[in-house]
Amino acid sequence: MSKKFITRRQALVLATALVALSPGLTLAQAKIKVAGIYTVPFEQQWAGRLHQALKAAEARGDIEYKASENVSNADYERVMREYATAGNVLIVGEAFAVEAAARKVAKDFPKVSFLMGSSGKPQAPNFSVFDNYIQEPAYLSGMVAGGMSKSNKIGMVGGFPIPEVNRLMNAFMAGAKEVNPKVEFSVSFINSWFDPPKAKEAAFAMIDKGADVMYAERFGVSDAAKEKGKLAIGNVINTQPQYPDTVVASALWHMEPSIDRAIKLVKDAKFTAEDYGPYSMMKHKGSSLAPLGTFEKKIPADIVAKVKAKEKAIVDGKFEVKIDDNQPKSTAK
Questions:
Q1: 53 and 98: one domain?
Q2: Which of 94, 106, 134, 297 could tie 127 with a disulfide, CB 3.0–4.6 Å?
């Protein structure tokens, strides 16, 4: 056995021992353990975007990833603690309905980093917050909707009237009004994050009253539009492939900029409590208007031109979409 081979082997053994004794020395190069906790199924739009971004990081070899779906609010704290004690150094999820419990867990595990969907502020030293600030593409999708409506009546079905939903609906309404001042809106909330049958029934009621374009903030709305031969605007994910003759456009949320930033900071031992909200905006590529796809030739050319011009203005910082977290109201008579 050559001396050179022995030296390499000894170096490998020594490096392995150092990692075992001081994992922080090579944390930036090593995989880190990350957990996701969701109160809804992976298929739900909002949680699905987090899950997809984390699965992409896993596929690249950056992280070891485990996740739990359909976790009840009552069980959320227990699951958080289990993941924190199991060696996960980054935990991602939503704290909206469990703020107090989630923040308590973060205090009890100061060496674990938390990135949680929240309407609250960051909590030092380790509790960062994020939100789906995709009001910019929501505004653009509203322009498309206003231009496509022939009855001048748009129906909007949301989950809960909380800031995360309200700001998107308000931006959508403002975009629609820009290109079609005559448009009226019917607004309702199903008080659930995942109840497609209930959302579908709410959409049917609006369509029966003349709405010919539906804002599908929740799953189920596009199904109603498809059955009635009406149009729909998607939210958070692109569902046009499933509804090629129904979904005209969608405001997309890309969680990758936020997730990738958090992973890098954890690996570099630089993760702190901060607001990741801005990383969901178009300038950070955290959101976008989906390609018009099957409707590219069906949308009036002047509307497409206006949308593209507004999109450029947003990205260039020349137009700012107003953030309005107030509950939207119906304007339809």
A1: yes
A2: 106
Is residue 209 within 8 Å of 153, Cβ to Cβ?
yes
Q: Are 102 and 113 in contact (CB under 8 A)?
A: no
Q: To which residue do tokens 């999708």 refer?
A: 141
Same domain flag for 108 and 247: no
Q: Are 324 and 173 in contact (CB under 8 A)?
A: no
Residues 6+ apart with CB under 8 A from 308: none
Q: Which residues pair with 309 in a beta bridge?
A: none
What confidence tens digit (pLDDT) does each residue in 210-264 have? 999 999 989 999 999 999 999 999 999 999 999 999 999 999 999 999 999 999 9
* pTM (2 d.p.): 0.85
Domain range holding 59? Answer: 3-131+255-280
Distance from C-alpha of 135 to C-alpha of 105, rounded to nearest angstrom: 31
Separation between Cα atoms, residue 141 and residue 143, nearest integer Å: 5
Q: Are residues 176 and 92 in the same domain?
A: no
For residue 295, being part of any structural domain is answered with: yes
Enter the tokens of residue 325: 């977290």
First vs last C-alpha separation in the chain: 89
Q: Residue 166: enclosing H or E segment and its boundaries?
A: helix 163-179
